[in-house]
Amino acid sequence: MRQHCISICSFFGFLMGIRIPTEIYLMKTTDVHFEAKNRGYVVITERKKHDSQRNVIPEKAILNSRVHKSLKNWLTSWRARVANEYSGDALFLQPSGKPFEVRHLGHKISPIGKMIWKDFQPYDMRHWCAVARLIRTRIETGNFDCFPVKN
Amino acid sequence: MSTTEGYIRYAEQYYRALPCDWISCALKPLEQQKKVAEMHKIFDRQKNQQNAVFEAVDTNLSFCQKWARRDLNSRPTGYQPVAPTDLSYGPRCEGDNTLFL
């Protein structure tokens, strides 16, 4: 159960480029907005930039896919199951129902990543996402377009 | 160099090594594994074409076929086969002129 929870946090870390662990810790259920035609956006609070907010428009696979670890699957299947009176409005919860603490999440993700790559740090997910999205722009447009990567 | 420029530099390097979409690989691993395998085949073909030039030289020279045929696994030579016929250790200097090699 705990492994599943951490794998979902890693999924969003790698594919959305969230700053882990601070931004995962600050995300709330009201920050995820689903709209018509499988679209939507996520509001992310940036602790690093004095709690300013940025909007990210994720792909369908990340937002509401049925077969991936999407945000919709997370909200309907996992979070609804473990939420209790301690949960509050936090988006990501531990198996006990309590929200994650910043350092706790970082300490949990690091050793699992180090099993795969010994120099792994949680912030490497954000670097990976930036490089992956730049490569995607190169494949789609023929140039390294940094505009969609700036978020 | 700014952070974005650093990312672009890394992306160029990785794209040159293997031009595939990482995010699609992460989301649709089975479909992308086939594509990546095809790319590896193309790279292997290119390598084989480069090696074929050397092999053509080998086959044209009949004496090479006997004693110097190219190995299937072309690897760098070890340090001993190409080492000069000299002492394997350097001269020792005394006092402050100690030489660390």
Task: Describe the structure in your own words.
The complex is a heterodimer of chains A (151) and B (101). Chain A starts with a helix and ends in a 10-residue tail after the last helix. Chain A contains 6 helices and 3 strands; from the N terminus they run ααβββαααα. With 151 residues, chain A is mainly α. Chain A is globular, with a radius of gyration of 15 Å. Chain A has a 3-stranded antiparallel sheet. In chain A, strand 1 (32-35) and strand 2 form a beta hairpin. Chain B has a domain at 3-70. Chain B has 101 residues and is an all-alpha fold. The radius of gyration of chain B is 24 Å and the shape is flat. Helix content of chain B is 58%, strand content 0%. Chain B contains 4 helices and no strands. Chain B starts with a helix and ends in a 34-residue tail after the last helix. Residues 61-65 of chain B have low confidence and may be disordered. Chain A binds chain B through residues 14-15, 59, 61, 68, 127-128, 130-136, 138-139, 144, 146, 149-150, and chain B through 4, 7-8, 10-12, 14-15, 19-24, 26-27.
